[in-house]
């Protein structure tokens, strides 16, 4: 069993090879509104309070008893219906003809921005994914999970190979984690990852020929109030050992944006292999590959450029113009950048230059119609380098 280091003091949360957690200090979550109000005196979900605040919401719910491709099928349910189901599920000894239902990936913060739910720990405040998607007002990667004892999430790695952090509001979770690269030993003879890494079928060498070369997973039991940090590319499987509520962010920053860019290149290459036979007869084959990749991953190369542009321009603005007192008091990306400091902004710009240079030189990117990009990649790179040079004078 691989040991974990507990984070006892501020540390650089961008280290790509190390998992920190759980954090034993309750101070990180003890003042959150959700920890105060969503939990009963005996540590259970406070259904009455939750119904009062969110009863009319519609939420995504997965059936943990059913496999659909490599995940569980989801449906949209009224929150009050889900809570009624959960109460009955508990009353019936954690059994139901409807199966084990798990409320997952609920964008509660976006739907209820006025609610005092939690504060992002400063260690995770350099969060480019949510900074970008907030800027374009389309999506976010902040989620609430709620589920009964026995609900679980199948084996996976996080979107864009991002980091993630997950805080338990109440209840306990068990995590099984494999360091990046170990997943290769868990693939079957067709190259597919398992749905459940605890399934006996993984012992069948005719199906999973390299399983015996894999390391045992890192196992964590996460208690109420604790936060788990998952590094980029670490595949994991998670169980709720009790009735549990948790908050999760997926996030990218200057430390793992290059991993995100490598992931996107791998995804495009996989799409190109799948439809290679159509390359000659299809005039817009390269564009179709981008469209397919975006439908599978949520982003294509041109949006990745815009992602880098928004991140870069926010930091250039802070470096060139500073931040007035009114802006500093607001919960904005620029205020977060200012809090982290000017050297952090320069660090972010340097990492952006490195990835943007690679993107601009990429042959698949150059085959796209780039006239809609403003500013053009070369101009943005020039501006970035000039801002770095000026900041370091």
Count of alpha and pi helical runs: 13
List how many beta strands DSSP finds: 11
Structural class: alpha+beta
Order of helices and strands: HHEEHEHHEEEEEEEEHHHHHHHH
Radius of gyration (Å): 22 Å
CATH fold label of the largest domain: Jelly Rolls
State the name of the first-level CATH class of the largest domain.
Mainly Beta
Number of domains: 2
Chain-averaged pLDDT = 91
Helix content: 25-40%
Largest sheet: 7 strands, antiparallel
Can you tell me the CATH architecture of the largest domain? Sandwich
Fourth-level CATH superfamily of the largest domain: Cupin
| Low-confidence blocks of residues | 1-24
Binned strand content: 15-25%
Q: N-to-C terminal Cα separation, in Å? A: 48 Å
Globular, elongated, flat, extended or rod-shaped: what is the shape? globular
Quickly list its features.
catalytic activity, acting on a protein, single chain, seven-stranded antiparallel sheet, Jelly Rolls, disordered N terminus, 13 helices, 393 residues, JmjC_dom, alpha+beta, 17% strand
Describe the structure.
The chain is an alpha+beta fold. The N and C termini lie far apart (48 Å). The protein is built from 13 helices and eleven strands. It is globular. Helix 8 runs antiparallel to helix 11 (342-361) and helix 11 (342-361) runs antiparallel to helix 13 (377-391). The longest helix has 21 residues, at 301-321. The protein has a seven-stranded antiparallel β-sheet. It has two domains: 26-179 and 215-251, Sandwich (Jelly Rolls), CATH 2.60.120; 257-391, no CATH class. One of its GO terms (molecular function) is 2-oxoglutarate-dependent dioxygenase activity. Its cofactor is Fe(2+). InterPro entries: JmjC_dom (IPR003347), JMJD6_ArgDemeth/LysHydrox (IPR050910).
């Amino acid at each position: 069993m691989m040991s974990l280091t507990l984070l006892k003091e501020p540390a650089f949360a961008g280290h790509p090879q190390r998992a920190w957690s759980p954090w034993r200090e309750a101070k990180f979550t003890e003042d959150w509104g959700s920890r105060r109000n969503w939990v009963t005196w005996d540590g259970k979900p406070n259904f009455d309070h939750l119904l009062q605040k969110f009863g009319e919401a519609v939420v995504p719910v997965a059936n943990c008893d059913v496999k659909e491709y490599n995940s569980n099928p989801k449906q949209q349910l009224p929150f009050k219906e889900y809570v009624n189901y959960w109460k009955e599920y508990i009353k019936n000894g954690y059994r139901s003809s409807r199966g084990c239902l798990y409320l997952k990936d609920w964008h509660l913060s976006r739907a209820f921005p006025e609610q005092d739910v939690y504060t992002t720990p400063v260690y995770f405040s350099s969060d480019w994914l949510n900074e970008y998607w907030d800027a374009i007002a389309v999506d976010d990667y902040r989620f609430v999970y709620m589920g009964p004892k026995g609900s679980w999430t199948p084996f996976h790695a996080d979107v864009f190979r991002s980091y993630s952090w997950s805080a338990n509001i109440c209840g306990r979770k068990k995590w099984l984690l494999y360091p990046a690269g170990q997943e290769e030993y868990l693939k079957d003879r067709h190259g597919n990852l398992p749905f459940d890494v605890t399934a006996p079928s993984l012992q069948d060498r005719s199906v999973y020929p390299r399983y015996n070369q894999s390391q045992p997973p890192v196992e964590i039991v996460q208690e109420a109030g604790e936060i788990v940090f998952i590094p980029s590319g670490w595949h994991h499987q998670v169980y709720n050992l009790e009735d549990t509520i948790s908050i999760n962010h997926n996030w990218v920053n200057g430390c793992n944006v290059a991993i995100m860019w490598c992931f996107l290149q791998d995804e495009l290459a996989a799409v190109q292999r799948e439809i290679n036979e159509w390359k000659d007869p299809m005039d817009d084959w390269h564009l179709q590959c981008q469209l397919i990749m975006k439908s599978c991953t949520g982003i294509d190369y041109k949006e990745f450029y815009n992602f880098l542009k928004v991140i870069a321009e926010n930091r250039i603005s802070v470096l060139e113009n500073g931040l007035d007192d009114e802006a500093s008091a607001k919960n904005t990306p620029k205020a977060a950048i200012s809090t982290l400091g000017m050297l952090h902004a320069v660090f972010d710009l340097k990492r952006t230059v490195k990835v943007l240079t690679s993107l601009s030189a990429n042959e698949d990117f150059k085959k796209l119609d780039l006239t809609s990009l403003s500013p053009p990649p070369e101009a943005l790179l020039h501006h970035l380098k000039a801002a770095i040079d000026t900041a370091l004078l």
